[in-house]
Amino acid sequence: MADHKPNRKNALGRGLGALLEDSPAKTKSQEILPEAAKTGIFEISIQEIQVNPYQPRVHFDKDALEELAESIKVQGIIQPITVRKLGPGEYQLISGERRFQASKIAGLTQIPAYVRTANDQQMLEMALIENIQRENLNALEIAQSYQRLLSECNLKQEELGDRVGKNRTTVNNYLRLLKLPPTIQAAIKDQTLSMGHARALINIEDVDKQLAIFKKAVEEELSVRKVEALVKALNEGKPGKDEKPSLDPVRKYEMNKIQQRLASHFGTKVALKSDAKNRGEIKIPFTSASDLNRILEILEII
């Protein structure tokens, strides 16, 4: 009976192809597996592979790795990892760390791999790009990877966009996240705050007000649209040189919400005014005697 080997994809993510050489480095494995000369894929002992020192992602979800390991036990490695040859029987991982770690958990002794040649800078660039394209990174991890590509790999934003398949505006939006205070960055990292919320907060120049609105957004689980409204109220409420300070944007937002609730409760437009010292007034208009009686009944006055 002829052996049937599963077909393996030979393509890497967009951007990596330009960095990898077309021809794999010749290895000892090629003598053992003649088919490798055609596919460019070699079976390498897991014990001979070192982890990538340039791996951008340090922490991997344990449960996700266990799930991947179970999948590998059943289906095998569908997409080979990529390594570079350091010496006889010695390789270093370029990309595919999750598959590599899950394969060890699954008890594999060998793993299919593309063998490439690359210098340290190419190693970093390939690891960063592969990570951005293949892993479920949060917005801050993507931003940090973009920054490393710019600073450590000497790429320009246009070049970076080409490498990762994103336009310059998208790349810039991610990079701007790194200007946020550490507290907000931490919230993005643990996914307490979404990319949409963060993008709205970036537009606030005052750090204290930025943090105030951030805290309100998290505590009250505000939608992105509501946070954008808060930020807009703040930016539009900036006083000019001869103007008095306006109501704090967070307080203004709270007053607007109360006004909306009052209007819904009384079934008519309600005017609510408040100053910085929490002094103000509530106006409930009526259109007729019957409408007034209706409002009085709601107030339980009659």
UniProtKB/TrEMBL annotation:
Belongs to the ParB family. The keyword DNA-binding applies. Pfam families: HTH_ParB, ParB_C, ParB_N. Residues 1-20 are annotated as: Disordered. The keyword DNA-binding applies. One of its GO terms (molecular function) is DNA binding. Keywords: Chromosome partition, DNA-binding. GO terms for biological process: chromosome segregation; positive regulation of sporulation resulting in formation of a cellular spore. InterPro entries: Chromosome_partition/occlusion, HTH_ParB/Spo0J, ParB/RepB/Spo0J, ParB/Sulfiredoxin_sf, ParB_dimer_C, ParB_N. This is Chromosome partitioning protein ParB. GO terms for cellular component: chromosome. It comes from Algoriphagus sanaruensis. Residues 42-132 form the ParB-like N-terminal domain.
